[in-house]
Amino acid sequence: MEILIDSSETTGRIIAPSSKSQTHRAMICALLSEGRSVLERPLVSDDTMATLRACEQFGAEVSARKEVVEITGDERPSPPDMPLDCGESASTLRMMMTLAALCDGRSVFTGKESLLMRPVAELIRAMGQLGISSRYLGKEGFPPVEVEGGGIIGGIVSIRGDISSQYISSILFASPRSRHGVNMSVNGRFESMPYVQMTVDTMERFGVKVESRADMRAINVRGGQKYAPTSLTVEGDYSSAAFAMASGCINGEVTVQNLDPGTKQGDKAIIGLLQAMGAEMSIVGDSVTTCRSDLKAIELDCAQIPDLVPILAVLCTQAGGISTLKNLGRLRIKESDRVDSISRELAKMGANIRVHGDSMEIKGKTPLNGTVLDPHNDHRIAMSLVVAAISAKGESAMKGTKCISKSYPSFLDDMKMLGAAIDVV
Fold first, then answer.
1. 368 Cβ contact list (under 8 Å, min separation 6)
2. How far is it, in rounded angstroms, from Cα 418 to Cα 412?
3. What is the pLDDT of residue 173?
4. Is the pLDDT score of 42 beyond 90?
5. Taking a C-beta distance cutoff of 8 angstroms, is the pair 25, 169 a contact?
6. For residue 100, what is the DSSP state?
7. pLDDT at residue 17 above 90?
8. Which of 21, 46, 103, 268 gives the lowest tally of CB atoms within 10 Å of its CB?
C-alpha cells in the first residue's frame, strides 16, 4: 500500500489505542491460569493476534468478540501439534519460549523472515541455567528454535539487561510454575526496565507473588504458585499516543484520551520529555493535550525508552538548538536498524542529523521537505515519518505502510481524523 502525505495541520481529539505491551502480558498470564479470564479492550493488532494464536496452540480456549477476549487457560500448557508461527512479533516469540518448557512435549517457534533475524541467544543461555533444553533449527543464535518440555526445575539464573527486557519477562512468566522457584540477577546495563516492571505488575494481578529489589536487579519468584483467572481492562498505550502528541506540538492542537496517569508504562516518559522540550500541554484526567510549541533541544539517555526514539528524532528536527540522543545500541536490533533508518529518512527530508556510534546528534530547527520515504518495514519508523511528512513542505510518498498494523492498525485513520492530508493510492 502506498500513501501520499501533504503538509497539513492536525487538530482535534482521538482515543489512544490499547496498550500492546499490556495486552501481550495479560494474554500470557491468562494462558497459564486455570480457568476463564476476561480481557476488556485488548489491542487487536498483528503482534497481539500472534500471541492470541499461540495461546490457542498451547491449548487455551479463546473466545473473541467486540472489545472483549476470553481465554480459558491451564497451568500446564499443551504442546502445540505444529510450529508456532509468531509472524513478526518478537514479543510473542521471546516471552513464550520459556513457558514452552512447561509442556509435556516439544515446541517449535518460527515466524516471518524479519523475525528470524531477531536474536534469542541470551535467552536460550539463561533458559539452560534453569535446566531447559533447547536447540536452534537454523542459524545459531536466532529462531527458529525448538524447546523441550517436561517442566522447569528452577534455580539461579543470571541474564544480561542490555539486549532485550523480553528475555527477562519470558523467564518471569514461567517461574511461578517451576519446581524450586527462580532467583534471577540482571547484569550489566539494565535497559527498558519499565517493561519488566509491567510484567511483574501483570503477574501479580493474576495472583502470583514476585519479590524484587527496587532496582529490579534481583528478582525472586517462589515455585509451585498458581495463576488465578482474572478480569482486566487494558489501558491506553503511551507509546502509540506519542505520535499524535508530537504532531500536536508541531502542527496544531491535539488531545489524546484514554491515558491512565497512574500507569507503569515506561513510555509515559513522553509527557516529561515534551515538557522538557518546552511543549505547551495540559493534562486533565485521562486526557493529554499538546499545542503547537516553540520547542527546544534536549540531551537524553534513551536506554529506558527505545520505542520513543524515532518520534523524538522527528521532534528534535523542529527544536531550536542541537539535540543529542544517546545509548541507542538496542535500536539496531529492532524491526529495523532504527538508528540508521530514522536518520537516513529524515536526512532525505533535509534534516541535519549526524550519527556517532550509538548516539544521534540532530540540529534544529530545520525545514523538512516532502520526498519519497521508506518505512523499512518498521511500524514505529513508518508512523514517525508520517508525522514528519505532515509538517514538511510539499508532498511525500511512502510504500509499505502495512507494517503499521503491527501495533496501531487505526493510526492512519486517526491521523486523518485530526486533519492530516493522507491519501491511499
1. 317, 346, 349, 350, 351, 388, 389, 391, 392, 393
2. 10
3. 98
4. yes
5. yes
6. G
7. yes
8. 46
